[in-house]
Amino acid sequence: MNEFTDEWAEAIRDYLVAQRAAGAPSTTCNTRRQHLEHLARRVSAGPWSLSGEALVAYCGAQEWKPETRRSRRTTFRSFWSWAYATGLCEVNTALALPKVKPGQARPRPTPERVYEHALARSDERLRLILRLAHDAGLRRSEIAQVHSDDLFEDLTGWSLRVHGKGSKERDVPLTPRLALELRSLPYGWAFPGDDGGHLSPRWVGKLATNVLPDHWTLHTLRHSFGTRIYAHSDLAVAQAALGHASPATTRIYVVVPDERIRGAVLAAAG
User: Fold this and answer.
1) pTM score, two decimals?
2) 227-265 burial code (b ≥16 CB/10 A, e <16)
3) Which of 131, 140, 163, 223 is catalytic?
4) Within a domain: residue 44?
5) In what order do the strands lie in the sheet containing 157-163?
6) Catalytic residue among 134, 222, 223, 228
7) Active site residue 131
8) What is the pLDDT of residues 104-156, one digit of tens each?
9) What is the number of structural domains in the chain?
10) What is the pLDDT of residue 214?
11) Active-site residue 253, yes or no?
């Protein structure tokens, strides 16, 4: 692995300026920067001389899961489309990349015993992080950005305005315990840090990984939330609570209870 050149550094910097000017959230910009820097360190050509064949060879050499591969392809398509449109390159290099089929992802909700064990190993701040994923279904980037200004009360209780992916917002009802914990914090960010005043999403995820065993993560706690919501309602409610644009995405998050399947089979059989 090599240090990337000044040409790559300038190209990535200018691309991210254009992304921010277009309203891309900081989480998207950070992800795309990481994708491009990973590429820049592993190819010998500059961004405007890299061939489509070399880009395909780089992607083909990586041991990525399908969703990771799809995400990298999206970044590269965006980067070279911007460069082609602005006249920085004569060919859109990323057009050489083949389409990537979605992976057959399966829900992986964290067992309650694992969650309870993680809570027991956590301090007060980390327990709140875990509860925001388990009880409210927040992503790590959303947890990082929780602010007291986003708490509000309506006729049925307290809710949190969540700043989700793609600058989309959703209102998530809070359990009484979670609402009380958030309301008890000082004014400002729930988790102060150096990333615009709050902790970075990466650090939030790392903190949780330190107390969650095996391969359980904040994301699998989010799967748990979606599965419990679906068990007590339907797919549309789970989709809204999780902040998904498509019900197909929500199906990746929720486990259909066996008793529901059995009940449907018996009912269909008369």
Assistant:
1) 0.70
2) bbbbeeeebeebbebbbbeeeeebbbbbbeeeeeeeeee
3) 131
4) yes
5) 151-154, 157-163, 169-173
6) 222
7) yes
8) 667 889 999 999 999 999 999 999 999 999 999 999 999 999 999 999 998 88
9) 2
10) 85
11) yes
The neighbouring-strand residues paired with 152 are 159
Residues 132, 210, single domain; the answer is: yes
149 with 222, same domain: the answer is yes
The pLDDT assigned to 103 comes to: 64
Supply 60's token pair.
Answer: 């083909």
Active site residue 219: yes
Active-site residue, from 77, 165, 170, 202: 165
What are phi and psi for residue 159, nearest 5 degrees? Answer: -135, 165
If asked whether residues 89 and 222 sit together in one domain, one would say no
Q: State both tokens at 172.
A: 């998530």
Over the chain (270 residues), the average pLDDT of each successive run of 10 is 86 96 87 95 95 96 90 96 96 94 78 96 97 95 96 93 84 95 97 94 94 93 92 88 85 77 73
Residue 130 belongs to what domain range?
112-263
Name the helix (H) or strand (E) containing 161.
strand 157-163
90, 134: one domain? no
Which of the following is catalytic: 15, 115, 230, 253? 253
**Marked catalytic residue, from 33, 127, 202, 219:** 219
Name the residue among 211, 216, 253 with its Cα closest to residue 110. Answer: 216
Same-domain status, 63 and 160 = no
CB atoms within 10 A of CB 194: 9
